[in-house]
Amino acid sequence: METATEQRTLFTKEEIGVTTPEDSKPQHRPEKTLPADRAQDKPAPTVGKPFVDNPRMACRHVNVFYGDKHAIRDVSLDIGRNQVIAMIGPSGCGKSTFIRCLNRMNDTIEGCRVTGEILLDGQNIYARQVDVVPLRAQVGMVFQKPNPFPKSIYDNVAYGPKIHGLARNRAELDEIVETSLQRAGLWDEVKDRLSHAGTSLSGGQQQRLCIARTIAVGPEVILMDEPCSALDPIATGKIEELIDELRRQYSIAIVTHSMQQAARVSQRTAYFHLGDLIEVGRTEQIFTTPRHKLTQDYITGRFG
Amino acid sequence: MNNGKPKTIEIVQRSLVRRYRAERRFRRMGLGAIVLSLVFLGFLFASIVGNGYTALFQTQVQLDISFDPETFATGELANADYPRLIKEALYKAFPQVTARGERRALTGLVSSGAAFQLRQMVLADRSLIGTRRSIWLPADDDVDMLVKGHLSRQAGRLSEAQLAWIGQLQSQGKLAKHFNWTLFTAGDSREPELAGILGAVVGSFYTLLVTLALSFPLGVATAVYLEEFAPRSRWTDLIEVNINNLAAVPSIVFGLLGLAVFLGAFGMPRSAPVVGGMVLTLMTLPTIIIASRAALQAVPPSIRDAALGVGASKMQMILHHVLPLALPGMLTGTIIGMARALGETAPLLMIGMVAFIVDIPGGFTDPATVLPVQIYLWADSPERAFVERTAAATLALLAFLIVMNGLAVVLRRRFERRW
Ligand SMILES: Nc1ncnc2c1ncn2[C@@H]1O[C@H](COP(=O)(O)OP(=O)(O)OP(=O)(O)O)[C@@H](O)[C@H]1O
Ligand SMILES: [Mg+2]
Question: What ipTM goes with this model?
Answer without folding.
Answer: 0.81
